[in-house]
Design a protein that fits this description.
Elements: E1 7-8, H1 19-26, H2 34-43, E2 54-58, E3 62-64, E4 67-69, E5 76-82, H3 91-100, H4 104-107, E6 110-116, H5 121-134, H6 136-140, E7 144-148, H7 168-188, E8 194-198, E9 202-204, H8 208-218, E10 227-228, E11 237-240, H9 244-253, H10 260-270, E12 284-286, E13 318-322, E14 343-345, E15 353-362, E16 364-371, E17 384-393, E18 400-409, E19 414-417, H11 420-423, E20 428-435, E21 443-452
Parallel strand pairs: 5-6, 5-8, 6-7
Antiparallel strand pairs: 1-2, 2-7, 3-4, 8-11, 9-12, 10-11, 13-15, 14-21, 15-20, 16-19, 16-21, 17-18, 17-20
Helix pairs in contact: 7-9
Protein name: Alpha-1,3-mannosyl-glycoprotein 4-beta-N-acetylglucosaminyltransferase C
Pathway: Protein modification; protein glycosylation
Keywords: Glycosyltransferase, Transferase
């Protein structure tokens, strides 16, 4: 069902009187200037949304207490911004992938907002018709909406600063893209607990929402601004919805300074998340062959993407320690995380170990340990074994198991064992990677993955 194109006025908190002047002034400064940091501290107090009117092209939201709410549950909103391309169009395939790769239960917690950020009304009309026909039941169910921001709300897009020696049309394209996303973020601010930023030419992994929820749960009690589920551009970037108003203001303030993905990095850093928190395998893959900018070829692919990423390890809570000589800050905990990081130790000797002591005894179904990286393929465990243990002794920092059972040995730096519960008759308190022969090469433990028979909390 296509809603009429009448302009639906949305009442938000108005910007402070000096906001427009502040935007004009701060946009002329580089993002690493002291003035910029001071200005952002002021911006960080902005919690109100931008005063703008949207046109609803497909789908109708419910209006309750001045908030836009979908009829579906508000756990995750997925935002897509799309424009007419000179070559190819992937938007319909992207929407299809979102819905097809989600189970019936997952669909209850997903809302998709498509922002047609194109001033060509004929193209918009055709695209709305295609979306409404192909995904009618999702529109009716309230989990898919198509919106448009009228051109009069956009700032000046001509005669902008040519940073990085970009040609004028490139500056205009990327500056408008920043504004497109700002208006999309602004619209989505109150729709759900979390927001996922996607591009309009991606393919999704199966059951991606379940994986995202599992990752969010694993980060409980830790501070984060952005969780990344792809290493490309602004694909698969997850935010708390309460941060969206500030991010929308931020993109508008510096829309002409640099591309959107660079601004997202600055935003994350200014909110005190210093390091990238990126999870593997990636849940989203870039599938577009032609860029939305001039139809140029864009063959970028995420080599960490896996179509079936549902099989995320449990990695129950544990204390990790090693007697190896750790290099810089590549400490033991980094091998046990699903974040894209690893443990790195200097050349290990016979008898050196890496130990995981679980908070509670567990039953394990499968174990996989990968050493080395693509860049350092020789920094693998050339001779080593994996053991599991019981009967813990020692204090918190020096806890160890008194007895161990060897499950297998590493081959080419990798070890994977299945049906562990049939090979180990006791509840497992510890797991140990043991070096069985000294090596001159350093050792990278890239990932340790453990699948349990029941949730760690049980």
């Amino acid at each position: 069902m296509i809603a009429s194109k009448e302009v639906a006025r949305i009442s938000f908190s108005c910007q402070k009187d000096g906001d427009k002047q502040l935007i004009r002034e701060t946009a002329t400064h580089q993002l690493n200037s002291e003035r910029y940091v001071h200005t952002f501290k002021d911006l960080s107090n902005f919690t109100g949304s931008i005063n703008v009117s949207y046109r609803y092209l497909a789908g109708t939201p419910l209006l309750r207490k001045s908030l836009i709410l979908f009829t579906s549950a508000g756990y995750l909103t997925i935002g897509l911004s799309s424009v007419k391309r000179k070559k190819g169009n992937y938007l319909l395939e992207t929407i299809k992938s979102i819905f097809e790769q989600s189970s019936y239960e997952e669909l209850k917690e997903i809302a998709v907002v498509v922002h047609l950020a194109e001033f060509d009304s004929t193209w918009c009309d055709g695209m709305v018709q295609d979306i409404s026909q192909k995904f009618a039941h999702h529109v009716i169910a309230g989990r898919l909406m198509v919106i448009h921001t009228p051109e009069e709300y956009y700032p000046v897009l001509d005669g902008l600063k040519r940073n990085y020696n970009d040609p004028e049309d490139r500056v205009k394209f990327r500056s408008k893209q920043n504004v497109d996303y700002a208006f999309l973020l602004n619209f989505c601010a109150n729709l759900s607990d979390y927001y996922m930023m996607l591009e309009d030419d991606v393919r999704c992994a199966k059951n991606f929402l379940t994986v995202v929820k599992k990752v969010i749960t694993s980060r409980e009690g830790t501070y984060w601004v952005t969780l990344e589920f792809s290493k490309l551009g602004y694909i698969g970037k997850l935010y708390h919805s309460h941060d969206l108003p500030r991010l929308a203001h931020f993109l508008l303030m510096f829309y002409q300074e640099m591309p959107c993905d660079w601004l997202l990095i600055h935003f994350r850093g200014l909110l005190a998340q210093k390091d990238v928190i990126r999870f593997k395998p990636s849940l989203f893959q870039h599938m577009g062959y032609y860029s939305s900018y001039k139809g140029a070829e864009n063959k970028l692919k995420d080599d960490d993407f896996e179509e079936d990423s549902f099989d995320l390890p449990d990695n129950p809570p544990a204390i990790l320690h090693t007697n190896m000589n750790v290099f810089e800050n590549y400490e033991a905990s980094k091998a046990y995380s699903s974040i894209d990081e690893y443990f790195w130790g200097k050349a290990p000797s016979t008898g050196d170990f890496y130990v995981i002591v679980f908070e509670k005894p567990i039953k394990i179904n499968r174990i996989k340990v990968v050493t080395g990286t693509e860049d350092r393929q020789n920094d693998i465990l050339h001779h080593g074994a994996l053991e599991v243990g019981e009967k813990i002794v020692g204090g918190k920092k020096g806890r160890q198991c008194t007895t161990y059972l060897r499950l297998g040995e590493f081959k080419n730096g990798i070890l994977e064992i299945t049906d562990v519960e049939h090979k180990v008759l006791f509840d497992i308190n510890c797991m140990r990677i043991l070096v069985t022969k000294s090596q001159k090469e350093w050792l990278i433990i890239r990932s340790i993955s453990i699948w349990t028979l029941q949730p760690p909390s049980q």
